[in-house]
């Protein structure tokens, strides 16, 4: 699976949009981009995933560049409860490749 | 659904003792994953099962670790004998045939 690069940490003001970037320049055509987050002392939580089109759900939006080499997770109105470590993961859709390889992620702190 | 259930939530044991961690996946999920999280190594996949059969145990650190899934609603991760370097948070996750992984709350293991 392709390797991802994320900033180590970011701050965002409460109520503002949080934009978390991820680089995955070696991504291949059958690899999806997944985002999970881990709130302190809890298990990771799925947020969203996409292949090449932008995606939106009740938690966030995922914007993938046309060349698929980078993406941005957007939390539209960040709250204090969004403070967490956010992981960007690239995973192949091939059957038998069920692994999620977690990197170091981005520690997002929401400032009151 | 109650989500993925893990027990115990905290375990403190002495070096050399046997430790058994338990997991109940979400009903109807046919994949089960065991992860370990430490400050030094982050979140690592140890082993995963599909339909109760171990598929990939390449992440299991050594022979002291073993995992079983006797039925669709129960799995164990056993460490025998335990060592201080096994201290970590162990997460169990489950998933349907396709879809995202749902993580349990984790078991914090301390080996003294």
Polypeptide structure, described:
The complex is a heterodimer of chains A (112) and B (112). Chain A is mainly beta and 112 residues long. Chain A is built from no helices and 9 strands. Chain A has strands at residues 9-13, 18-23, 31-38, 45-50, 55-56, 61-64, 70-75, 84-92, 106-111. In chain A, the strands form 2 sheets. In chain A, strands 1-9-8-3-4 form a 5-stranded mixed β-sheet, with no helix packed on it. In chain A, strands 2-7-6-5 form a 4-stranded antiparallel β-sheet, with no helix packed on it. The termini of chain A are far apart. Chain B is mainly beta and 112 residues long. Chain B has strands at residues 5-7, 10-13, 19-24, 31-38, 42-50, 53-56, 65-71, 74-79, 88-95, 102-103, 107-111. The N and C termini of chain B lie far apart (36 Å). The relative contact order of chain B is 0.34. The model of chain B has no long low-confidence stretch (mean pLDDT 95). The interface between A and B is medium-sized, with 18 and 21 residues.
List keywords for this structure.
heterodimer, A: 112 residues, mainly beta, five-stranded mixed β-sheet, four-stranded antiparallel β-sheet, B: 112 residues, seven-stranded mixed β-sheet, 11 strands, 55% strand, globular
């Amino acid at each position: 699976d392709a390797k991802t690069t994320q900033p180590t940490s970011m701050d965002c003001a409460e109520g503002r949009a949080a934009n978390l970037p991820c680089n995955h320049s070696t991504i291949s055509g059958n690899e999806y981009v997944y985002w999970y987050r881990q709130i302190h002392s809890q298990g990771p939580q799925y947020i969203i995933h996409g292949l090449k089109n932008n995606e939106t759900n009740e938690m966030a939006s995922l914007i993938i560049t046309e060349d698929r080499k980078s993406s941005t997770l957007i939390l539209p109105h960040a709250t204090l409860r969004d403070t967490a470590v956010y992981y960007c993961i690239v995973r192949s859709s091939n059957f038998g490749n069920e692994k999620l390889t977690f990197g170091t992620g981005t520690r997002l702190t929401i400032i009151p | 659904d109650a989500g993925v259930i893990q027990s115990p939530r905290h375990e403190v044991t002495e070096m050399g003792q046997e430790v058994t961690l338990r997991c109940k996946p979400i009903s109807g999920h046919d994949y089960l994953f065991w992860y370990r999280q430490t400050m030094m190594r982050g979140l690592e996949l140890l082993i995963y099962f599909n339909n109760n059969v171990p598929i990939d145990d390449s992440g299991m650190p050594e022979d002291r670790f073993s995992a079983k899934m006797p039925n669709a609603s129960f799995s164990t991760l056993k460490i025998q004998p335990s060592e201080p370097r096994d201290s970590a948070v162990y997460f169990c996750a489950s998933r349907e045939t396709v879809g995202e992984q749902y993580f349990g709350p984790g078991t914090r293991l301390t080996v003294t």
